[in-house]
Write a structure and sequence with these properties.
Blueprint (H helix, E strand, L loop, with lengths): L5 H7 L7 H13 L8 E2 L2 H8 L3 H14 L2 E4 L3 E4 L1 H5 L14 E2 L12 H14 L14 H15 L8 E4 L1 H15 L4 E6 L3 H9 L3 E8 L2 E2 L1 H4 L6 E4 L13 H14 L2 E5 L23 E6 L11 E4 L2 H15 L4 H13 L1 H27 L4 E3 L6 E5 L6 H10 L2 E2 L14 E5 L5 H14 L3 H9 L1
Parallel strand pairs: 4-15, 6-7, 6-9, 9-10, 10-11
Antiparallel strand pairs: 1-3, 2-3, 5-12, 7-8, 11-12, 13-14, 14-16
């Protein structure tokens, strides 16, 4: 049994003399120095005595003294563990975490409390039971074939995506898919990527981090302005065609055709981020741009907006000319994604559990969206919600004269996280707030609108100040 604790004997207490005080001091120093962390379980007094070649009573006395000083905890049936109190003052200072918002209206997060835990556990058990022993080895860098097969069927059925299992690459979320694509573009001679303006700031940051320059292209009510895209020197563009982020517009059919014509003319690539297309309420489903020209579109998505970001599963459907090189890059970067969660997701897709969860969550999100819109219409009728037909967020267009950045700051001071639209764009557009509603109950969304009204200066007062 003592051999199970050789690390403690050989690495932490190698020089400790065989005297109680010296052993006690060596343990105390290991805790203070952070070599024994809070929660670490120590050997029993009998085991440690055997390792160090001392009487058991010597170790018992040392443990008792360190428990009295607050360095150790001793619980019947749980053994002896390192306490947090004795090490707390010697641990490195922690970086301050994110603010504890009273009302967090950030985008990009689904209702985490609605995650189908029981179905996921059941699917995980079923998937593990049917996996072969060989499947528990290093994964295929392209992804678990069972998941790629189910995704090819699902994406064809739900998004009209044209894909075979061999064209799909499984990634650690959509960000991993975008990273791999950007790195491929850089190695094949690209220097820049066009992005929608406004867009998610993190996308611009990711592009810069991996060696390319993001070039903003304006968006209007019909989506990306392809005529402006054609004025750039870019040969690749990142678009959210089904539900533009954050404005919520849909890329008009004529713009879709123009975008594909642009890609053919410049021998370019369209990166289609289909981040939340499953969530729609007041409009019919829209097919992916990828279906119109699979050779010119790299299509990407994930389960982050449907299930939970913590699962870290995404995918990209790649043009044939890119597939081999990007799968090789995936293999060299992380050896592929974990097989067990892939197998679990494949089981949920095959059994219908994924579709059932989507039906439940759509109804949930519609109720929350409607509560937000009703509260806005009642308390702030001059505030105009945009992009309400789909997704997990809305943009609220503010009356002229309200500075969205200042309003966002005022709300933050009240414990409300409501990002300003100005933070998503490189150009000056209308003032607005980008509001995610998926994570809050209807009552809390109504409370958020009350906070909006309380933090907003009276419109007549604002007008007088502007005229003065």
């Amino acid at each position: 049994m003592a051999e199970n604790w050789t690390t403690l004997r050989e690495l932490l207490l190698p020089e400790a003399p065989k005297r109680g005080r010296a052993i006690e001091s060596a343990l105390r120093d290991a805790i203070r120095d952070g070599r024994l962390l809070p929660g670490a379980r120590l050997p029993s007094s009998r085991d440690l005595a055997g390792q160090l070649g001392v009487a058991r009573g010597t170790i018992t006395a040392a443990y008792t003294q360190l428990v009295a000083e607050g360095y150790l905890l001793a619980r019947h049936g749980s053994g002896t563990t390192v306490a947090s109190l004795g090490a707390e003052q010697h641990r490195p200072s922690q970086q301050p975490g994110a603010p504890a918002w009273r009302l967090d209206l950030r985008t990009g997060i689904p209702a985490l409390a609605a995650f189908p835990r029981a179905e996921w556990i059941s699917a995980s058990r079923s998937a593990l039971a049917e996996l072969s022993d060989d499947s528990l080895g290093y994964p295929d860098p392209a992804g678990f074939i069972g998941l790629r097969t189910e995704l090819a069927s699902y994406l064809g059925r739900v998004r009209a995506v044209s894909a075979t299992p061999d064209q799909i690459l499984i990634t650690n979320g959509a960000a991993d898919a975008l990273r791999l694509t950007i790195e491929y573009l850089r190695t094949t001679g690209h220097h820049s990527v066009a992005v929608e303006d406004p867009c998610l700031p993190g996308e611009r940051e990711l592009i810069v981090a991996h060696g390319l320059r993001p070039v903003p292209v304006p968006v209007d009510d019909d989506g990306l302005q392809v005529t402006e895209l054609a004025k750039t020197s870019c040969r690749a563009v990142l678009v959210t065609a089904a539900h533009q982020f954050p404005l919520g517009t849909v890329l008009h059919p004529e713009r879709r055709r123009a975008l594909l014509a642009w890609a053919r003319d410049v021998d370019g690539l369209i990166i289609e981020d289909d981040y939340d297309a499953e969530h729609r309420y007041d409009r019919p489903a829209l097919g992916a741009v990828q279906a119109l020209d699979p050779a010119r579109v790299a299509y990407q998505g994930s389960v982050s907006k449907v299930l939970a970001p913590a699962i870290r599963l995404g995918w990209t459907v790649l043009p044939d000319r890119m597939h081999t090189a990007i799968v090789a890059r995936k293999r060299f970067s992380d050896m592929g994604c974990a097989t067990l969660p892939q197998a679990t997701l494949a089981w949920m897709l095959r059994s219908g559990g994924y579709d059932r969860h989507l039906r439940r969550s759509r109804a949930l999100y519609r109720r929350r969206r409607d509560a937000l819109l009703e509260a806005l219409a009642h308390k702030l009728p001059d505030w105009k919600p945009i992009g309400i037909a789909a997704g997990l967020h809305v943009v609220i267009r503010l009356p002229d004269g309200i500075d969205d950045r200042l309003l966002s700051q005022a709300l933050a001071a009240r414990g409300v996280n409501a990002p300003a639209l100005a933070g998503y764009s490189t150009q000056s557009i209308f003032p607005g707030l980008v509001i995610g509603y998926a994570t809050l109950t209807p009552d809390r969304l109504r409370a958020a609108v009350t906070e909006f009204a309380a933090a907003t200066p009276d419109s007549s007062q604002a007008a007088r100040e502007e005229s003065g």
